[in-house]
Amino acid sequence: MSAPSKPAVPDESWVPGRAPAGPTSGATSNALFEYLCRLGDDRLVLGHRLSQWCGHAPIFEEDIALGNFALDLIGQASALLHLAGEVEGKGRDEDALAFLRDENQFRNAQLVELPIGDFGYTVVRQFLFDAFDVLLLDGLTRSSNETLAGIAGKALKEAKYHLRHSAEWVVRLGDGTEESHGRVQRALNELWPFAFELFETDDVDHAMNAQGVAAEPATLRAQWESTVRDVFAKATLLVPETARLVTGGRRGRHTEHLGHMLAEMQILPRSHPGAKW
Amino acid sequence: MASAQLTREQILTWLEEVRDPEIPVLSVVELGVVRDVQVGETGVVVEMTPTYSGCPALHVMEEEIERTLRAHGVDAVEVRIVFREPWTTDWMSDEAKEKLRAYGIAPPHASAEGDALVPLRRRDVIPCPFCASHNTAQKSEFGSTACKAIFVCNDCRQPFDYFKAI
């Protein structure tokens, strides 16, 4: 199986921005840890995917750019998972959380775990995420958790140039040649249903909102949609109508692709526990 | 040397010896990553903040700070990574910027926190650090390190790094 578009849990009934009718995370007792893992895992997994472009990007400048984005995201993940480990209080640091958790303990949205595809696919995925990330991080700079607010303030500067860069490429490729337009349109058709998982709001998010840590993701959706629709219009791309939206990642249910990615990402520290290099 | 005899100023002077491994012309103090130094009964705490979230030089600088202070006889050193305020190139002094230019890296302009989404926006003119020409072009917004962009001078034909304003 290689089709990247198969969601782990297709849910026809779920309305974006509303918690699914099904199971909640069940993690409200340790909601902050759970929330920080969601933030950290989105960045760790997307950062690892971007690092797979190293030495393979279509042009030298983009090879550097994608490597640079990967570095930013993995650095952010490191700070967030470090904080998650402190909040959890069981002695796990960022490396233990990144390398010694299994697939079903990862809390990233499925959007970021999909294979890199072609350059256009990577660009569209990045743009969908960056447009969300700028809004999310901007809100988090006002978090009641001061460490989280500080990490977000740093990451926001990075997310802004990520968004500028990915948006420029969406326009360049979408409004480019027939070939480039076709490729990014296909990527958008495939990725669009996955984007809405970023706005899924459940019991963990309710708890974070109540504690003043973070706004519920659903509240970011309207502004995100206005941004991305505007850029897609400039790029002459059509936003697909879609009924099927993706859910599950925030509760540890993933596509078949995450496990394979983690096997590659985690093998060294798992084969050589405690190794330093 | 007992911690009680140390001053914050003395520690900061010693920290001038610790260089950014990727830009050895600047010290960690000039770069602005050392945010505070506290000298207490139990030892010295150096607070530092990353330039970029994933800057690989961060941990090298952390180890180098510990090593340097130990070499000066300060045994109890703790380096704390803080995120209170996001690092900005605006913290760099004019003197530090001139050191960058003399080293061949165009120094950062004042950072402008604008809208993220201005596709294909107009870019600042970055003078060539070698011949001062304004006839330069950005070749890549991303360069050899997270903090630099790649430019080329159309007059002296010299490629150069620009230390990005952030």
Walk me through the structure:
- The complex is a heterodimer of chains A (277) and B (166).
- Chain A is mostly helical and 277 residues long.
- Helices cover 59% and strands 2% of the residues of chain A.
- Chain A has a single domain (26-271), classed as Ferritin, core subunit, four-helix bundle (Ferritin), CATH 1.20.1260.
- Chain A is globular.
- Chain B is α/β, with parallel strands linked by helices.
- Chain B starts with 7 loop residues before the first helix and ends with a strand.
- The A-B interface holds A 47, 60-61, 64-65, 67-68, 70-76, 78-79, 131, 134, 146-147, 150-151, 153-161, 163-165, 167-168, 171, 227, 231, 234 and B 49-50, 52-56, 81-87, 116-121, 139-144, 146, 150, 166.
Notable characteristics:
heterodimer; A: 277 residues; mainly alpha; Ferritin; two-stranded antiparallel sheet; globular; B: 166 residues; alpha/beta; GMP Synthetase, Chain A, domain 3; 2 domains; 4-stranded mixed β-sheet; 3-stranded mixed β-sheet; 9 strands; elongated
**CATH topology descriptor of chain A:** Ferritin
Distance between the termini of chain A: 35 Å
* Radius of gyration of chain B, taken over Cα atoms and rounded to an integer in Å: 18 Å
Percent strand of chain A: under 5%
- Structure classification of chain A: mainly alpha
The helical percent of chain A reads: 55-70%
Low-confidence stretches of chain A: 9-16, 19-23
The secondary-structure element order of chain A is: EHHHHHHHHEH
Whole-number count of domains of chain A: 1
Largest sheet of chain A: 2 strands, antiparallel
Chart the SSEs and their pairings.
The complex is a heterodimer of chains A (277) and B (166).
Chain A: E1 9-11, H1 31-51, H2 60-88, H3 94-99, H4 119-140, H5 146-174, H6 178-195, H7 203-210, H8 221-234, E2 245-247, H9 256-271
Antiparallel strand pairs in A: 1-2
Helix pairs in contact in A: 1-2, 1-7, 2-5, 4-5, 4-6, 4-8
Chain B: H1 8-15, E1 19-20, E2 23-27, H2 28-31, E3 34-40, E4 43-48, H3 57-71, E5 77-81, H4 94-103, E6 105-106, E7 136-140, E8 148-153, E9 159-163
Parallel strand pairs in B: 4-5, 6-9
Antiparallel strand pairs in B: 1-2, 3-4, 7-8, 8-9
